[in-house]
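Why does residue order matter? Because the sequence determines the fold. Keep that principle in mind as you read this record.
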Amino acid sequence: MLTKRIIPCLDIKNGRTVKGINFVNLRDAGDPVELATLYSESGADELVFLDISATEEARKTLAALVLRIAEAINIPFTVGGGITSVEDVRLLLRNGADKIAVNSSAVKNPKLVSELAGVYGSQCITVAIDAKRVNGQWKVHLVGGKVATELDLFEWAKNVEELGAGEILFTSMEHDGTKNGFANEVLAALSNSVHIPIIASGGAGNIHHFRDTFLLGKADAALAASVFHFKEIEIMALKEALRDAGIPMRL
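Structure:
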């Protein structure tokens, strides 16, 4: 069985790490380079950097900050935010990213996913999907969750897999920042609907939540922010507890 992954996430706004609840009420969580270094040294399997205001502000990802972080860590590094072209990805990979994540730009231009996968390989392409329930249906949202669409979560997930995405980063907007646990029911359904890895995001509050998202949600990786940023959970203690629960981890 493949080992499961623990992935801290750096949500970046104005060059600082921030964290909110349900995508709003952001608060400062620290210097991104310092946090990235800590996570790399503390046993994280990967790191995700999301420039959460790049799309809304119609600008490119903070490439210089990406370079500073890449130089400080030695774990796989995924970068997202404001990516709209092959050239954008080329710059980020040159600055040290190992993978890139596209979200709003992929919905607006689905061919972008196949184009990027064709140039850089599916293993390099993550499609991030932010969704919440609207009238009982899981609907995709764009621009940091601010713009609702009529796009069905499961249809979009199958579509991006066909287009060449190597994995999906799914965030339940209604679970984000609540620390009440991941959206395991929809995660399990999502995992059953596609054949590429699913990264669970939104809702981590304690070690049991991570265990449940692997066992009940069938997630391949679990991403979290505030519980790591504010030192509520230590990564190695988490991985040891998950290993003791029978979940394969890299220690």
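The first helix runs from residue 32 to 41.
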